[in-house]
Amino acid sequence: MPTDNPRISVALSVYNGERFLAQAIESVLGQTCGDFEFLILDDGSRDATPAIIADHAARDPRIRPIVRENRGLVASLNQLLAEARAPLVARMDADDLCLPERLGRQLAYLDAHPEIGVLGTWTEDIDELGGPHPVLAPDHPLGHEDFLRAVELSLPLLCHPAVMYRRDVVLSVGGYHGAFRHCEDLDLWLRLAAVTRIANLPERLLRYRHYEEQVSSRHATVQQVGAAVARIAHAERLAGRPDPTADLDALPSIDQLDALFGREGVARAVRARVAPGLLYSRSALRDEGFDILRRYIREGGSREGLWRTVGRLVRFGEPLRAARLAATLALG
Questions:
Q1: pLDDT tens digit string along 231-268?
Q2: Helix (H) or strand (E) holding 155
Q3: Please, are residues 30 and 100 in contact by the beta-carbon 8 Å criterion?
Q4: Around Cβ 35, how many Cβ atoms within 10 Å?
Q5: Alpha helix (H) residue ranges in the chain
């Protein structure tokens, strides 16, 4: 039964998530630790999402549905933070699956380690059918010092839907920042690292799904540009300089970054960091990521693997872009 003072608030935002939503909800409701409320925010969905939420809420009083017009993920996450009644917030996404022990294991660890403000877990990576999805990246860092080393090496830090954090700590740094759309979690972790300790449990307590339609696939360019800027802003803070992104609702274009940070070379550095990560992304090679890549080449960037990208564009059904990239490479 629900209580007015739950130990945990599970926070899930969903937009047009009918495909996997019921499985995600049921994986939360099946936790061995039952002392939680389950906030599910429907961000203006136009599919069967509202009906799925209503059906589950009618059967389990721990679910608190929030239904409103579409405002985007950052606004949704901040609203969930504001409405959570528990001191601990567990993030969850509409396409992933919790293992039954997830909440209990994270709660026990945070109770035993009050110095930890953010706790993730390792994940099991799955495809859209629930089968294994191979990932070459290393597992997430265990302790805070490992986390800081991973920041310096640009390695994976935390899996956002596997995280449980202390609500007051996240609110103390202003929650999620709207400027970092599609990489709001990375920006938050970098800001939190200055005020609390961060860790991951070496247990695979979340099944993390990979598929073509997920946000990280559809918005690869915006995500990678934002991540590069978030790391530059982090370096500014470490150096004791003001963070010019702190009060922004949206990031400016790459060409405006030199002016934003007050020095030359920031825009070029962002293109150099972002371009190599776009070579295999179908969506990035079809949007503004293609222009970032060509500008990076003209600025003297590495050409390694780029002729293969020409062939990849042909396979993606983009012969004109393939020809333009070939011409850019030939001119170099």
A1: 999 999 999 999 999 999 999 999 999 999 999 999 99
A2: none
A3: yes
A4: 16
A5: 21-29, 49-59, 73-83, 102-112, 144-152, 167-172, 184-192, 215-218, 220-238, 257-261, 266-274, 282-286, 289-298, 306-315, 319-331
